[in-house]
Amino acid sequence: MWGIQVNVGYVTTPDWRWVHRGTMDRVEFQTEAAAEKQMKLWYPTAKSACFRVAKIED
Prior knowledge:
Order of helices and strands: EEEHE
Shape: globular
Structural class: alpha+beta
Radius of gyration: 11 Å
Largest sheet: 4 strands, antiparallel
Distance between the termini: 9 Å
Number of helices: 1
């Protein structure tokens, strides 16, 4: 499973947190490509550097 993370820390000390839906369920995707595609749709602006796709290790 893959998910989208947002950096809530600083550039020098990042603190990556999982993005959740309004129901507080973590946003999860079956493939990295699907997660990348959705991330680009949801966060297309300059702020997109604050987001990344990561593998869920749970």
